[in-house]
Design brief:
This protein is an all-alpha fold. The chain has seven helices and no strands.
């Protein structure tokens, strides 16, 4: 399997709640293609789902820093930050999501909580 196929398999596993197996497959994708932003993004989500919020925010922030136009990772970073009470940082990311993708419905719903 190539990196993209491994990513797709890891994504499916993550969606089904098989986080341990998903992490292994996503890490395999990254061993083939270290810069695979979507694989990194999904690993960041899994970290959050498993309760490692520091790890999750660090991973998602790195994905966004290396891939500033990655709307999905930026939105999920904003959601994680908001959940952790980091409203100003979260709102900055929601605004950037809407700048990049003005029709992003979920970001539109969340932006109403920003002052």
């Amino acid at each position: 399997m190539n990196a993209q196929e491994l990513y797709e398999r890891g994504f499916e596993l993550r969606c089904s709640g098989s986080y341990g197996e998903a992490k292994k497959v996503l890490q395999q994708a990254l061993s083939i293609e270290p810069g695979h932003a979507d694989a990194q993004w999904q690993l960041g989500l899994i970290e959050g789902f498993e309760g490692d919020f520091d790890g999750s925010t660090a991973t998602l922030a790195r994905v966004v820093e290396e891939n500033p136009d990655h709307v999905g990772a930026r939105y999920d970073l904003a959601m994680t930050l908001m959940m952790l009470g980091m409203e100003a940082e979260a709102c900055a990311h929601f605004h950037e999501v809407l700048r990049l993708s003005p029709d992003h419905e979920k970001a539109k719903q969340q932006i109403i909580y920003c002052q």
